[in-house]
Design brief:
The protein is mainly alpha-helical and 260 residues long. It folds into three domains: 1-69, Multidrug-efflux Transporter Regulator, Chain: A, Domain 2, CATH 1.10.1660.10; 70-106; 110-254, no CATH class. The termini are far apart. Helices cover 66% and strands 2% of the residues. A two-stranded antiparallel ribbon has the order 1-2.
Length: 260
């Protein structure tokens, strides 16, 4: 006959686990002997080993009791059901591990590979970290709103970086942001480039790749707000653009004439 400590040691569990199994009704609690101690016989050892084996296999304790009392067919059925649940859990954990692993991948955590490649190209042409951070956040909003279209837009965005004026624009913006001068005269050159590119696109009949419909005004407003929040000169650039007949930061358009 074994004490509770000896029973726990024999079955490879803790005394606390044995007491818990008593409380939830998995393991019968023997009467105390004349000396006031509870003594456990061989049946208790066998029962405890079965409980431990099922628990170690991932069977919820709430189901262990029913499985111990089940006939062979019912037991096998329960095992198959639990095995399927465990496979689902393994798949979920594997997906979580892949997601966690991507935490070290920087931009690729929340952006599709073509957008990551675009950001890498911006880095290559000398775009500063602050401008890159703003671009990345903007593309996060875009990819969340238009997950399918964003892949269609990227070839055009990459092609734009072959234009020296676009490269100069990103380099200028990087220099301005990093210099952190309130009235930086280079802002005028930025506006000149943006207006020139907008007028060229208009003359060529090119529709902005972000033009998707009238229901997306909120999304574009969020993107413009992101730019304004990133740097205090963004709003000044937009004001100068409006003076030149253009409006918008993310989606550049002709200033609409007020209704007559």
């Amino acid at each position: 006959m074994l004490t509770i400590g000896q029973l726990a040691a024999y079955a490879g569990v803790t005394v606390r686990a044995v007491r818990h199994y008593h409380q939830i009704g998995l393991l019968p609690e023997p009467e105390r002997d004349t000396s006031g101690y509870r003594k456990y016989g061989a049946p208790a050892v066998v029962q405890l080993i079965k409980i431990r084996t099922l628990a170690d296999a991932g069977v919820p304790l709430a189901q262990v009791g029913r499985m111990l009392e089940a006939d062979p067919a019912t037991f096998a059925e329960a095992v198959e059901r639990i095995d399927a649940q465990l496979r689902d859990e393994i798949d979920r954990l594997a997906a979580s591990r892949r997601q966690v692993a991507r935490l070290t991948a920087g931009d690729s955590l929340v952006l599709p590979p073509p957008v990551v490649a675009y950001l890498d190209r911006l880095r290559e042409i000398g775009t500063s970290d602050r401008i890159l951070a703003g671009e990345r956040d903007g593309w996060i909003l875009i990819a969340a709103r238009w997950p399918d279209q964003v892949l269609e837009w990227m070839p055009d965005k990459m092609a734009q970086l072959d234009d020296p004026r676009v490269v100069r624009l990103y380099q200028l913006l990087s220099e301005i942001v990093d210099a952190d001068v309130v009235d930086d005269p280079r802002v005028t050159e930025v506006v000149d480039l943006m207006v020139e590119l907008a007028e060229q696109a208009e003359a060529a009949g090119v529709i902005d790749v972000h033009e998707t419909g009238q229901d997306d005004d909120i999304s574009f407003a969020l993107l413009d707000d992101l730019a304004d929040a990133a740097d205090k000169r963004a709003e000044r650039i937009r004001e100068l653009m409006r003076e030149r007949g253009w409006d918008g930061w993310t989606r550049t358009q002709r200033v609409k004439e007020p209704p007559g």
